[in-house]
Amino acid sequence: MLMDGTRDFSIDAMQCRWQHLPGTARARDIAIHWLRVVAGDAAADSLHRDARNRPRLLHGDTSWSHSHARLLVAYTPRGRVGVDIESRVRRTDPLRIARRYFAPEETAALAALDEALRHDAFLRLWCAKEAVLKAHGGGIAFGLHKAVFDVGGEGLRMLRCDPALGQVGDWSLHMLEPEAGFVAVLASTD
After folding, report:
1. Which residues contact 129 (CB under 8 A, 6 or more apart)?
2. 66 backbone dihedrals φ, ψ, rounded to 5°
């Protein structure tokens, strides 16, 4: 799904917003303002950080990610949600990072890709892992290797995960291109 500019959209039970971060605006402030609109004042006022610094609401769940003055926010009235965005201009050495943090089969799959495709596949994989780990609550400190994905193809498919993340079938993954030059993934559970 490719979008441009500020957009509100829905995926399953999730309400989402993609927008530019104006000037010195803080992502958290914009997220709270948007939560007031989609979830109500009580939900927005209940926003707090748990012991692992994950945003929490008394009712429902929210997650946001920002990169290069862009913001993606998601809210769901049930289950958990995690989002991550990355700019395609972010230059990294995908194989160096994968060898250190990803499962061996993911690293092998990335290494087998043509170099022209590897960077984008790495960003999609990174976003999927981070979105799942944000929804779980442990973040990347929990371990990027604990959620393993099929690297081939255009879609996202989780192959296996640590039991603390639940079952593979518990997760819904949605890959987005919110704007030219960006990759995003929304991960949710019911």
Report:
1. 102, 140, 144, 147, 149
2. -140, 150
pLDDT digits (tens, 9 = 90+) for 23-69: 777 888 999 999 999 999 998 999 988 888 888 898 899 999 999 89
How crowded is residue 11: how many other Cβ atoms within 10 Å of its Cβ?
16
Q: Taking the model in full, what pTM does it have? A: 0.92
d(CA 173, CA 146): 16
Residues of the chain with pLDDT under 70: 1-5, 153-154
Cα gap 120→32, rounded to integer Å: 31
Residue 85 burial by CB count (10 A; 0-12/13-18/19+): exposed, middle or buried?
buried
Residues 6+ apart with CB under 8 A from 62: 31, 35, 39, 47, 55, 73, 74, 75, 76, 81
Spatial contact of 100 and 81, defined as CB atoms under 8 Å apart: no
